[in-house]
Amino acid sequence: MTFKIRTALLASALVLGAALSAQAARTDIVIGMQLEPPNLDPTGGAAAAIDEVVYANVFEGLTRYRSDGSIAPALASSWDISTDGLIYTFHLQSGVKFHDGTDMNAEDVKFSLDRARAEDSTNAQKALFKGIASVDVVDPLTVKVTLSDPNGGFITNMAWGDAVIVAPESIATNTTNPIGTGPFTFTEWVKGDKIVISKNPNYWGEAVALDKATFKFISDPTAAFAAMMAEDIDAFPGYPAPETLPQFAADPRFSVVGGNTEGETILAMNNKDEHFKNVKIREAVAHAINRQEIIDGAMFGYGKPIGTHFAPHNPDYVDLTGLSNYDPALAKKLLAEAGFPNGFKTTLKLPPPSYARRGGEIIAAQLRAVGIDAEISNLEWAQWLEQVFKGKDFGLTIVSHTEPMDIGIYARPEYYFQYDNPAFQLLMTDLNLASDPEKRSAILKEAQTMIAKDYVNGYLFQLARTSVANAKIKGLWENSPTQATDLTGVSWSD
Questions:
Q1: C-beta of residue 18 within 8 angstroms of C-beta of residue 4
Q2: Do the Cβ atoms of 147 and 88 come closer than 8 Å?
Q3: In DSSP terms, which residues pair with 258 in a beta bridge?
Q4: Exposure string for 458-478, b = 16+ CB within 10 A, e = fewer
Q5: Helix (H) or strand (E) holding 434
Q6: CB 158 within 8 A of CB 150
Q7: What backbone phi and psi angles, to 5 degrees, belong to 459?
Q8: How far apart are CA 180 and CA 164, in angstroms?
Q9: What is the pTM of this model?
Q10: Other CB atoms closer than 10 Å to residue 148's CB: what's the count?
Q11: Residue 85 contacts by C-beta under 8 Å, 6 or more apart in sequence?
Q12: Beta strand pairing status for 184-190 and 194-199?
């Protein structure tokens, strides 16, 4: 009898234990990504997919973006700014170690900033560091950064993925084996399949809830839909098949979120091209574009039309869509005035994202209707970066600029669309020197208007961030103030 009672109690305990185990919240997650990063070093590559994996997860900067777009301390616990706005003294967090066990200190900060601003720097956003005159180590936990001119956006610049802190010892291998200070460590990269990161047991800050995260690469929108429906994927930020979102919204297993991004999606024009160096031709292209048709056809209605390179949710945004309203008759007239009454041929080189591929087909048809024959070339990201971004070998391209507050790229004549306007460059210099919010706002509005009236690029729409996730997941960003899939606050409900 005693044996039977004990056996029964043991069986009950096992059943209860199994039930409790079944109810325990998961500590792993599988994230869908459409694009595989070309490497994993955010200080040496321009692809947004790099930061999508490593920003805030593996690598950290002096400051960082919060989900609402505000800036928070990161590796710098605080900072002081001199009255003339030239000297920033950063006070670093104590006890921070890189994933290889070495200390992160002021020398690493100096190395990272000096490397980013060096003449031979390969940093995709080298201009962020251009105004740094010197970086000095005060003590192991204090760094003094001196600027050549005041820069009201410097603290924000330090929050970009391109400004993360790296160690000299890992530079050579960060592309494939990233060593950062973040709450996750790099575990595995199976090329063409997945990247795995794991919880950092020695993290200096607040521990994350997840033990493991897997980024799964699924380029095909149909396959992405199937993987989500089968629950092979737990979440897909930036979900690539918006036409299927109503199915997920109707399924209680999933949550669907439509948020904002900093992604100005543009039909970029090579301003040094034999045709597009002529402002009348650029204006003709702008009037040949039917934005709403592109949003409806390529994005299934998700996206907000823009008329300049600025996010509509920004308080300083100016609605300039009227300057480039859809007017094919005007487009033909401008082409004739520019000496091309019968149009001309050019290239339209498209990177992999669906907004580019789908949008490119629609835009090519719209341009054809006014006489511009744009030959489509579908490129992989590595090809696009080599031919378009670096080589500047293109007529037209479509890309979403997801970096925050990046109107300053128009002040870089060497940037891939090669806009060279001294007046605009002076505006950006004035912006950097200005600290008064009203003055900065006025400059930003003038800058938006200048590039819109110069028709530098064809301004299409602000990229929406449509995401699908298991309904039990908490803490994923709804909006995307920077290029990131920040998992630091992500957990599962029971």
A1: no
A2: yes
A3: 466
A4: bbbbbbbbbbbbbeebeebbe
A5: none
A6: no
A7: -90, 120
A8: 9
A9: 0.79
A10: 11
A11: 147, 150, 151, 152, 435
A12: antiparallel
Residues with Cβ within 8 Å of residue 262, at least 6 apart in sequence: 311, 401, 402, 403, 404, 405, 406, 480, 481, 482
Q: How many CB atoms lie within 10 A of CB 5?
A: 9
The CA distance from 402 to 384, in Å, is 16
Token pair 């970009």 is found at 160
Question: How many Å apart are CA 412 and CA 423, to the nearest integer?
Answer: 12
Structure tokens at 224: 């992405």
Element (H, E) at 67: none
Cα separation, 100 vs 179, in Å, equals: 7
Whole-number Å distance between alpha carbons of 399 and 385: 11
Distance CA 125, CA 116 (A): 8
449: tokens are 């208007």
Question: In this structure, which amino acid lies at residue 229?
Answer: M
Residue 453: strand, helix, or coil:
helix
Residue type, 351: P
Considering all CA atoms of the chain, what is the largest pairwise distance in Å, rounded to the nearest integer?
103
The span from the CA of 238 to the CA of 257, in Å, is 10
Q: Tens place of pLDDT for every residue, the chain, 494 residues? A: 444 444 444 445 444 444 444 457 899 999 999 999 999 999 988 888 999 999 999 999 999 999 888 899 999 999 999 999 999 999 999 999 999 999 999 999 999 999 999 999 999 899 899 899 999 999 999 999 999 988 888 999 999 999 999 999 999 999 999 999 999 999 999 999 999 999 999 999 999 999 999 999 999 999 999 999 999 999 999 998 888 999 999 999 999 988 888 999 999 999 999 999 999 999 999 999 999 999 999 998 989 999 999 999 888 999 999 999 999 999 999 999 999 999 999 999 999 988 999 999 999 999 999 999 999 999 999 999 999 999 999 999 999 998 888 999 999 999 999 999 999 999 999 998 887 889 999 999 999 999 999 999 999 999 988 999 999 999 999 988 898 999 999 999 98
Among residues 398, 262, 265, 266, which one has the least CA distance to residue 317? 262
